[in-house]
């Protein structure tokens, strides 16, 4: 049993060195809304990016409107509409062994649903995190706690899985973005209405 690695922004960890033989993981993300009694619908999405950092098509963009990748290697466990409760608010499963060889990165983004219409932004959040867990034995391999969310904006790029040959690394990113999910997907090369 190995201990969880608590990560800082920009830090990288080799998941396959930490857990030899690793094939299945899940990314769990959670957050709290600062205002008592308030709710916010954040959506955890996965962008499966090629060597050029682009989405090859809609089948590589996993979110509440497309719950599984075309290849079946990445799937959302569902949409939590309020963020209520402790632990992971949303989860994305990744079968590392079946991710197509052309996919180099899997980027995890939390985005506020209809942020502009609802007048909500990241500044309304607290205690955000992303963690990578070995799905076979529930061992938490890495966790990135984002303690200070000073940014405004509608989306938060939490972290990414990066392929290096046969190995997979996790990189903590923690960067806010003004755009909502559809705008981010467009930036990564896909025209969508999210």
TrEMBL record:
- Write down the PANTHER family for this protein, in alphabetical order: CAMP-BINDING PROTEIN 1-RELATED
**Record Gene3D superfamilies:** sav2460 like domains
Q: In this protein, which residues make up the domain named TerD?
A: 4-188
- Name of the molecule in the record: TerD family protein
InterPro entries on file: Stress/Tellurium_Resist, TerD
Q: Which UniProt keywords apply?
A: Tellurium resistance
Say if the entry is tagged with keyword Glycoprotein. no
